[in-house]
Design goal:
Number of strands: 11
Pfam family, one: PK_Tyr_Ser-Thr
Subcellular location: Cytoplasm
Shape: globular
Oligomer: single chain
InterPro entries: Kinase-like_dom_sf (IPR011009), Non-receptor_tyrosine_kinases (IPR050198), Prot_kinase_dom (IPR000719), Protein_kinase_ATP_BS (IPR017441), Ser-Thr/Tyr_kinase_cat_dom (IPR001245), Tyr_kinase_AS (IPR008266), Tyr_kinase_cat_dom (IPR020635)
CATH topology of the largest domain: Transferase(Phosphotransferase), domain 1
Strand order of the largest sheet: 1-2-3-5-4
Strand content: 15-25%
CATH superfamily of the largest domain: Transferase(Phosphotransferase) domain 1
Largest sheet: 5 strands, antiparallel
Catalytic activity: L-tyrosyl-[protein] + ATP = O-phospho-L-tyrosyl-[protein] + ADP + H(+)
Main location: cytoplasm
Low-confidence stretches: 3-21
């Protein structure tokens, strides 16, 4: 069996939790300070709930669905978000990794995903407002490219609309850091069919250009 090497090989027998690489002293949040209020949505791999942090801050709390992915894969999204900070990207606050279920905590965006918002309010928006939304996404994606990240899952469902109608890119579970603007996924890896570029279908190759195709 052949698999992708994701971490350096160690000769030490003892194992450490995946959360150690997060720098838990900085990013570890106190679970007791987060109150879960209601479910905002769910997907194949996780559930997102509205939470209240420290009794005053609204946050979005993402939890892994049992058996849907490994803990290591779930933490990879958090590790990616730590490295990214931009007004047009959803802000990362931290994780709760000491107990299960594990939380990834981000800012709460009032109007939810762009796809749902456009279905319910799209006809009320002026062309200039729609164009501004597109520009917001471009800003966020340009920042990712400038820092050598490929999103790999850009879609309206993964963009969020704030109270001022600004749009932020979210969901970095498939995002990868690359040195040469190219990432080749393993054969059999799931990908969003409707938004994927031809080279993804034929060669499993992702780049900033395939992100443009998805846009």
């Amino acid at each position: 069996m052949i698999t992708r090497l994701r971490h350096p090989v160690s000769t030490k027998a003892n194992k450490v939790p995946a959360s150690v690489s997060l720098g838990s002293g900085i990013w570890e949040l106190k679970r007791e300070e987060i109150a879960l209020l209601k479910e905002l949505g769910s997907g194949q791999f996780g559930v997102v709930q509205l939470g209240k942090w420290k009794g005053q801050y609204d946050v979005a709390v993402k939890m892994i669905k049992e058996g849907s992915m490994s803990e290591d894969e779930f933490f990879q999204e958090a590790q990616t978000m730590m490295k990214l900070s931009h007004p047009k990207l959803v802000k990362f606050y931290g994780v709760c990794s000491k107990k299960y279920p594990i939380y990834i905590v981000t800012e709460y965006i009032t109007n939810g995903c762009l796809l749902t918002y456009l279905k319910s309010h799209g006809k009320e928006l002026e062309p200039s407002q729609l164009l501004e939304m597109c520009y917001d996404v471009c800003e966020g994606m340009a920042f990712l490219e400038s820092h050598q990240f490929i999103h790999r899952d850009l879609a309206a469902r993964n963009c969020l609309v704030d109270s001022d109608l600004s749009v932020k890119v979210s969901d970095f579970g498939m995002t990868r850091y690359v040195l040469d603007d190219q990432y080749v996924s393993s054969v059999g890896t799931k990908f969003p069919v409707k938004w994927s570029a031809p080279e993804v279908f034929h060669y499993f190759k992702y780049s900033s250009k395939s992100d443009v195709w998805a846009f």
